[in-house]
Amino acid sequence: MILVLTDMPEGTVGFEAVGEVTSDDYRDVLAPALQRELDGGQVRLLCLLDDRFEGYSPGAWVQDAKMWLGHLGTWEKVALVTDHEGIARALDAFAWMMPGEARSFPVDQLDAAKTWVAATD
What we know:
CATH class: Alpha Beta
Radius of gyration: 13 Å
Number of domains: 1
Shape: globular
Number of strands: 7
Order of helices and strands: EEEHEEHEHEH
Structural class: alpha/beta
Strand content: 25-35%
Helix content: 40-55%
CATH superfamily: STAS domain
């Protein structure tokens, strides 16, 4: 399941993944919320994968790839907040491929991640 975080700074959007994330979560929750941001231009996104996150279904992986590749020029900043080291390492390893900035943060630095993703530098 994907939940929209309501306590995000102005100009940002945040999501929390809980349990297993499915393709329906992308269609029903993530896509509509992101479309509002995409209509406004660049997106500053925070994703929280804490200890309640269990993983992605195969369909969710496909939807995730479509979303990222379909909007390559719109990602201004992406903050991934997680203690899942493999996921954080993967983002950090491939962040250079993203047109915007991407950075991982441990869960205990959620507030710092929100500050970073909101900053317009």
